[in-house]
């Protein structure tokens, strides 16, 4: 059953100083597909209108209106749309550390990507409204912690399976901040294979080609540079884009908003109570 949208305006991005840097995206009648990408955070999405399609390696997940859609940190996914498709949604971008904090210190992993829980949806919806309105309630973070803790306790499944040696090598490779000086030949040599086999292996492990992966890494890096006050041209040139148009096109392709919209995102002054 469809719920009332938390925000009837076009896409809007929010950044907050509490909840370990919580971010959020509110979108109305969104029609632009997202290519394969990933996030360092949990994406917890309330689907208000339409269906939110998420393509994972080997399967397609369809989240109907009134459901909660979740992707885990570093989980490769795309969001395709039919020609006449659209979706209205609100996404909480929650850090791995904060969700673990909400879960009493225990790690969290979601195997089920869609959740049909009317009460939990309603609770998160009310929190989305308060976040959208920049509410200054001293109880907001506690209420978020309670709702996210309930989500993790009811639907989280704990640790992921132990990685194999190849996955460990990839984790080490991708953990480094080396995307500006990545060498395909050197990376292939590290795995003891030629560059063509490495490209196939890279796509098998990550769901992306090396080129698309490192473009996305540069987009993620650019967010912190924008937050620090760097201008668009400096960010584009420093990260190896041809010009600001080239950078802005990729930024919107992966995030759904422009760099300028990200820069002016509302930011809360509230900080988490550590006690």
Descriptive notes:
The chain starts with 11 loop residues before the first strand and ends in a 7-residue tail after the last strand. The strands form three sheets. Strands 10-7-4-9-2-1-11 form a seven-stranded mixed sheet. It has ten helices and eleven strands. It folds into two domains: 12-155, Regulatory protein AraC (Jelly Rolls); 165-263, Orthogonal Bundle (Arc Repressor Mutant, subunit A). The protein is 40% helix and 20% strand. By secondary structure, the chain is of the alpha+beta class.
Give a brief outline of the structure.
40% of the residues lie in helices and 20% in strands. The protein is α+β, with helices and mostly antiparallel strands and 275 residues long. The protein has two domains: 12-155, Regulatory protein AraC (Jelly Rolls), CATH 2.60.120; 165-263, Orthogonal Bundle (Arc Repressor Mutant, subunit A).
Write out key terms for the chains shown.
275 residues; alpha+beta; Jelly Rolls; Arc Repressor Mutant, subunit A; 2 domains; two-stranded antiparallel sheet; 10 helices; 40% helix; globular
């Amino acid at each position: 059953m469809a719920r009332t949208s938390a925000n009837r305006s076009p896409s809007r991005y929010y950044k907050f100083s509490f909840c370990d840097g919580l971010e959020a995206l509110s979108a109305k009648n969104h029609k632009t597909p997202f290519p394969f990408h990933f996030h360092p955070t949990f994406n917890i999405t309330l689907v208000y209108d339409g269906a939110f399609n998420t393509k994972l390696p080997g399967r397609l997940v369809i989240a109907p209106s009134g459901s909660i859609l979740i992707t885990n940190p570093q989980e490769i996914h795309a969001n395709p749309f039919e020609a006449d498709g659209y979706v209205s949604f609100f996404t909480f971008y929650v850090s791995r550390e904060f969700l673990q904090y909400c879960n009493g210190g225990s790690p969290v992993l979601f195997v089920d990507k869609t959740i049909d829980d009317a009460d939990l949806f309603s609770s998160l919806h009310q929190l989305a409204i308060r976040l959208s309105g920049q509410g200054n309630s001293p109880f907001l973070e506690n209420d978020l912690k309670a709702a996210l803790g309930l989500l993790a306790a009811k639907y989280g499944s704990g640790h992921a399976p132990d990685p194999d040696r190849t996955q460990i090598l990839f984790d080490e490779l991708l953990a480094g901040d080396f995307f500006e000086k990545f060498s395909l030949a050197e990376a292939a040599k590290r795995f003891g294979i030629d560059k063509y086999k490495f490209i196939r292996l890279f796509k098998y492990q990550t769901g992306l080609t090396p080129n698309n992966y490192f473009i996305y890494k540069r987009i993620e890096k650019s967010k912190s540079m924008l937050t620090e006050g760097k201008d668009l041209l400096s960010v584009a040139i420093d990260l190896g884009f041809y010009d600001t148009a080239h950078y802005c096109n990729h930024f919107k392709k992966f995030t759904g908003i422009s760099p300028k919209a990200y820069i002016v995102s509302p930011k809360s002054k509230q900080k988490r109570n550590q006690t």
